[in-house]
Each structure stands twice: as C-alpha cells, then as structure tokens.
Amino acid sequence: MREDVSKIGWLLCTASCLSVVHSRTTWRHLEAAAYDYNFEAYCSEFNKTYPAEEVPQRSQLFAKRLAEIQQHNTNTNSSWKMGVNEFTDMTFDEIGRFKGYTKYAGDAPQAPELTVAVEQLPDSVDWRTKGVVTPVKNQGGCGSCWAFSSTEVIESHAAIASGKLEVLSPQQLVSCAPNPDKCGGTGGCQGSTQPVAFQYVETAGMTTDASYPYTAQTGTCDPDKVKPVVSIKSHVVLPLNDYSSLLKAVATKGPIAISVAADWFGYEEGVYDGACGSTIDHAVTLDGYGSENGKDYWLVRNSWGAGWGEGGYIKLFREPNPSCAVDKSPEDGTGCAGGPATQKVCGICGMLSESSYVLGANVIMNEQQSPQTRLRGIQL
C-alpha cells in the first residue's frame, strides 16, 4: 500500500504503541452505562491528549463514531459488534497510516496444487492451538503491515518445522528489505508486500525481535543487529481469488500471508460481514477458519495490537460463493511500478486476491543449541 505515512506524532500519545489495552470499554460496557461514555472518558482510557484548539474537532468526530457504534449494535440480527478503540477519534487519513500494503505483481512461483479434497479438510483450523503462533503485535503509525504479516508467517512455519517458536523482528524487514521495483510502496513505513519480504529473508535470514526491536520508523538497516535465527528456502503464491486453494493451504501448510481492504477499524467481535470496499490496502495473516453461530469465517490476525478486535483478530465471513469486485487503484495496494491499472479481487474485503507462504522455514542451529535440546516438529 502506497501511502503518505508521516508521523502521527504526539497526538496519538502512547496509545498507538500499546500492544494490549487493559480493561477496555466494550460494546457491553457501553450498553450497561446507558450510553453515557463521553470523550473525556475515552481520552483517559486510551491515554490521549490534544491541544485545546483541536479538542472540539476530535470530540465531534468521537461523538459521530460513537453514535455509529451504538446504532450498529442495536441491530440484533448482525453477526458482529463494533466498539471503541484507538481509532475512534481518528480521521480516515490517520487510520490509513496503520496499513501500508499494495498489491504485488511480481513473479514468485505458484504454490503446488494440493490434492486433498475440500470435503476432507477439518471443520475448523486454528494454528494458535498448535503452539506455533506468537502474541499479537502492534505496527503503530507506520505502514509496516507487510512486515508484520511476513514475520508472523515465517515465525509459524519455522515453528511447525522445528518445534521451536521464535519471536522474530519485523523491524529488520522494515529497515533492511529492499524494494527496488516499488511493489506496494517504496518500502519501510511507506509500504511493501509480503513476497518482497520473503525474497529478502531467503538470503538474509531473520533475527529476533529482541536483537532488532521495533521502532515504528523506517530507519537505516543496522547489519550488526541482524543475527539470523530462522531461515527460509523460498516462497510461493496461491492462485488469485481461489477459495479452495486458500482453504487447503491454511488447513495443511500453516498460516498464510493475505491482503485485504481493511475498512473494519471499528470491529470488536463476531463474524464480520460488513462493507469493505475493493481497494486492497492492508496485509494480514490467515491463521485458520471455523464457524460461529452457524456462520463460516476466516480467522485473520491483524497488527493493531491485542486490544483491537477479538484479541487482535477479526473473523471475516467465509462466503460459500465469494463475490468479486474490481480494485481500481492496485498501486495503492499490492502492485509494483508499471503494473496493471485494475485488478479483480474476490472474497469479503478482497481477501482471496493475493496469498503467499514460505517453504523450507527452519530455526538455525547455533553452538549453544544441540539437536538434543530441540523440540520435536509440530504434529499436524
């Protein structure tokens, strides 16, 4: 996603960098409080401060969004609920800075066709239950969703292969992964794509988050911090807009890097079947699928902190017959410079439009770690 990711700065205070929001006001709390939740309480909860001249504008925006939340949540037939979060008083331009992905038009090899029949797949899959998924992270006001999604996929696939779950460094990708073809942006906090990140890791490996901590800034690559603990051999992309291929891949291979039109910043819980638009602008990770109250969903991990959505996740409606639309601005999503002017995108929020995963991921042995101390590979 190509975007103007200038610093949001102190206006967001510390809220944008929090990984977890404790004692968060939920839609149930709003109902119990008879809708007396106000802007002052909101700022206190999310640790936000504004100059006096900006308060009226922010307060009005908050009141408008709160009314939308309350109105939506009165619909007893809706499969999902909205709630207040750090985005409730932000403009759409500011919210856009928490994305950072553009559609990829590169030449990565196609994933091998999986011969398993859809009917033979389990009714539900959640890779978190296998112990191969790290805690939810927060990209903050940097357009680095592509780096987080890539990191999460590599973490999980290395854990599936080795039995050892490492918390890897999205900052390494933000600062070090080159993007000469301007796929998804110009790189760093200005956006890129997961295949670009995977291609870099194939030669550089990945270090831990502790060795190369996240700063929410592009910065300059520091090779002294890049001490690889995980490697990958290659990566593949799934067929575009192919429901069965994505379902098979996430069920049998592991978490998958996907792209979406992320117009669901107000989501709190349930199976989301609301409007999304068709402009792909955000990179996330597919960690499974299932059903809730008779409604099928995709289990999608976001990078907006564990205080957003359902512990940092959103359940997207898994349509039996996915609808399609046309992304008229693929350069704002996953496209490289000189790519096509339009792109067909299918599935809710366009989530079937581009998917990829890595091959040959593994934890690199070092002299302090012998084979006897390694866990056995995860049993699928």
Please describe what this structure looks like.
With 380 residues, the chain is of the alpha+beta class. The model is unreliable at 1-23 and 367-380 (pLDDT under 50). α5 crosses α6 (170-176) and α5 (145-162) crosses α7 (194-204). It starts with 26 loop residues before the first helix and ends in a 17-residue tail after the last strand. It is globular and about 55 Å long. It has a domain at 9-96: Helix Hairpins (Orthogonal Bundle). It has 8 helices and 13 strands. Strands 1, 2, 4, 5, 6, 7, 8, 9 and 12 form a 9-stranded mixed beta sheet that branches. One of its GO terms (molecular function) is cysteine-type peptidase activity. Residues 121-334 form the Peptidase C1A papain C-terminal domain. Pfam families: Inhibitor_I29, Peptidase_C1. Residues 39-95 form the Cathepsin propeptide inhibitor domain. Keywords: Disulfide bond.
Topology overview:
Layout: H1 27-32, H2 39-45, H3 55-73, E1 80-82, H4 92-96, E2 125-126, H5 145-162, H6 170-176, H7 194-204, E3 230-231, E4 234-237, H8 243-252, E5 256-260, E6 267-272, E7 282-292, E8 295-301, E9 313-317, E10 324-327, E11 343-346, E12 355-359, E13 362-363
Parallel strand pairs: 6-9
Antiparallel strand pairs: 1-6, 2-7, 3-13, 4-12, 5-7, 5-12, 7-8, 8-9, 10-11
Helix pairs in contact: 5-6, 5-7
